[in-house]
Each structure stands twice: as structure tokens, then as C-alpha cells.
Amino acid sequence: MMIYTGTKQGHSLSPVSVSSDTSNMSPTSSRLKYVSLGVLVLQTTSLVLTMRYSRTLQSEGLRYLASSAVVCAEVLKIVACLLLVFRDQSFSVRALNRVLKEEIINKPLLTLKLAIPSGIYTLQNNLLYVALSNLDAATYQVTYQLKILTTALFSVSMLGKRLGIYQWISLVILMTGIALVQQWPSEVAPIAQQKDLTASSQLMGLLAVLVACFSSGFAGVYFERILKESKQSVWVRNIQLGLFGLIFGLVGVFVYDGERVRENGLFQGYNNVTWTVVALQALGGLVIAAVIKFADNILKGFATSISIILSTLISYFLLEDFDPTSVFFMGAMLVIAATFLYGYESTPEVNPSKV
User: Fold this and answer.
1) In the structure, what pLDDT confidence band is assigned to residue 290 with cuts at 50, 70 and 90?
2) Cα 61 from Cα 67, distance rounded (Å)
């Protein structure tokens, strides 16, 4: 689930440059900065690991439908954003109705523009379930950083942004690291793991991540462009995205899982873990939006790095679905280094000729 703040985060938009000068930072701001680090790590790691666990959990009965989980997350996101807009309007029902009417009903063309990124994001959300059903959390975490590359390329082509030399170097390092990570399976992998994680399922998981990365890059930059063209609250924009996402999600449910829904219901296989995944998807971005102003590029680099390390350790020791090799660690270190290097320079300049 995506909550869009106009910045690049987790599943997100474009790089932002926030001053990391802490010389004049108050003790309270300094504490908030590190609280933000903890929140970013917790949200990123918990969503991936919980989703992976929910898709591989061996339990009696039916497994929940990923398409229905996407729909539930959209509903929860819409409700949360409505409450935030309600708060911004001083808890006035009349003001809330006026804003929604002016921005959604009275601006049909702008609203329809958001159908494009919303449809792509709905596809992406479903693909992430496919990816984590076929890849361990650590491999997924590292490979999904490819979205940095796709977002950068779409930012250059669609927004006219210019990347610095360090950023281009970081993209090369990133691709090298991800290529190494894909070589991670070892000859001594447990027999049970070999059965569960076949070459075909790995390929399916990899393809799902790659398509998700490209869809994330394109839709994120497209949405950023819309945000720059309007002055409305980002929460209103997320309501619009959520409404289209709900429509596309319901279509997906009944096209791909319609027969199973008719037989066993929309909420078949749901348990506490499933609802936790839905909540993390829908509300995780809201938490990020609340703390992102305290997180500079270096802090976000730390969050990504710690999340990758935690995912690796938990996948190995607790989920027991991951047998790392030296090649994996080498690739992971390159991806972490690329994440830091990409945020080293300030925000790329915008080419005036393309604005």
C-alpha cells in the first residue's frame, strides 16, 4: 500500500534533500530524528517480514487472497485520509464536504488523471504479494531497491531532473549489487528449502519485483508531477488514488479470484497476521509521512541498511527460509553503499527547458 508524501520513501516518489546539519539542532529535534530512524526501520522491516510470513504460514484451512487484502488496505487508507482531512478542516463536516466536492467532483479531469498511477499502484501491490510468496524477505528487500534506479530514470525523462556524478555511479553499483544477490542460492541449501523455493518460483518472484520496481518508478514520478501542478492537500490526492485503487482492486478480485470468493467469501483465510499486513500496508505510509520531515538522505540510507540487515537475520534465524552466501553479502553491501551514495549530493537540478 502506498501513501504518497511527495518524497521518496520505501515504496515512493522522488529524492528529497533535507539539510542534515545538526549543529543548530535542538535536543528535541535531535531525539525526533532518531525516533524517525526507528520508525522507518520498523515500518519497512515489519511489513516485508509480516507479509512474507503470512504468505508462507503453514496452517489448516484456506490461504487468504492477496487481491482481497489489497482492497481492504485501500478502504483503510481512504478512511484514514478522510480523518486527516477532517482534522485539517477543524473537524467541520461542512468544510470536509466542501473540500471533497471542490477537489474530487468539481475537478473531474484532474481526478481522472490519478486513475493512471492508481491502476499501476494496484497492480504493484498485488505483485508484491506474488514476490514475497516466492522470494525470501532478504532477497526481496535488496532487489526492491532497484526502484531507486527506475525512479531516477523516470525523473530524468519525465521531470527533466539532472543527476550528479555520484548518483550515476551509485546506480551502476546498485545494479551490480542486485545482480550478485540474484546468485545467492547455494549448493548446500536444505532439501526442504529446495522444494519450497524452486527455480521457477524464484523466477516468478524476481519478475514480480522487477515489474513492481518499474511501475513504482513511473507511477511515483507521474504522481509527483501532478502534486507539483496542484496545491491541494496530499491527503485529498490520496483519497482520490484510494477510490480508483478500490475500483481497480475489486475488478481484480472478481476477475482473478471471483470463483473462490463466491465459494468461500472475500475474507477467506483471514487471521490476525493477515489483518496486521493490511494495517501495515495502509497505515505505514501515514506514519512515514508524519516523520519524514525529520529524516534526511543519510538517515533514510541508515534505515534501508538496517532494514536489509534485520530482514536477513530474521529470515535466517526465525523464518528459516534463507541460506545466505558470501556472494549475497557482497551484493547486499554494494546495494547499501549505493543507497548512501545516491543521497550524497543535494537534490538534482531541474532542467528549465523541460519544465
Assistant:
1) low
2) 18
| CA end-to-end distance (rounded Å), the chain | 30
Interatomic CA distance for residues 115 and 93, integer angstroms = 26
DSSP assignment of 218-241 equals: HHHHHHHHHHHH--S-HHHHHHHH
| Grid cell in block for residue 255 | 476477475
Confidence of residue 351 (pLDDT cuts 50, 70, 90): very low
What is the distance between the alpha carbons of residues 212 and 336, in angstroms, rounded to a whole number?
20
Asked if residue 240 lies in contact with residue 114, where contact means CB atoms within 8 angstroms, the answer is: yes
Measured CA to CA, the distance from residue 13 to residue 301 in angstroms comes to 15
CA 206 – CA 121 distance, rounded (Å): 18
**Rg (Cα) of the chain, in Å, rounded?**
20
Question: CA 116, 118, 122, 125 torsion: positive or negative?
Answer: positive
Q: How far apart are CA 31 and CA 288, in angstroms?
A: 16
Cβ-Cβ contacts under 8 Å for 109 (sequence gap 6 or more): none
Q: Which residues contact 152 (CB under 8 A, 6 or more apart)?
A: 15, 163, 167, 171, 217, 342
DSSP element (H, E) containing 331: helix 326-342
Instruction: Please check the confidence at residue 291 and state whether its pLDDT lies above 50.
Output: yes
Distance CA 224, CA 13 (A): 7
3 state SS for 91-146? CCHHHHHHHHHHHHHCCHHHHHHCHHHHHHHHHHHHHHHHHHHHCCHHHHHHHHHH
Residue 44, burial from CB neighbour count under 10 angstroms (0-12, 13-18, 19+): buried
Q: Is-contact 58 196, C-beta < 8 A?
A: no
Band of residue 234 on the pLDDT scale cut at 50, 70, 90: confident
Contact 64, 54 (CB under 8 A): yes
Tens-digit pLDDT profile for residues 33-49: 777 778 878 888 898 99
Residue 43's closest CA among 307, 339, 312?
A: 307
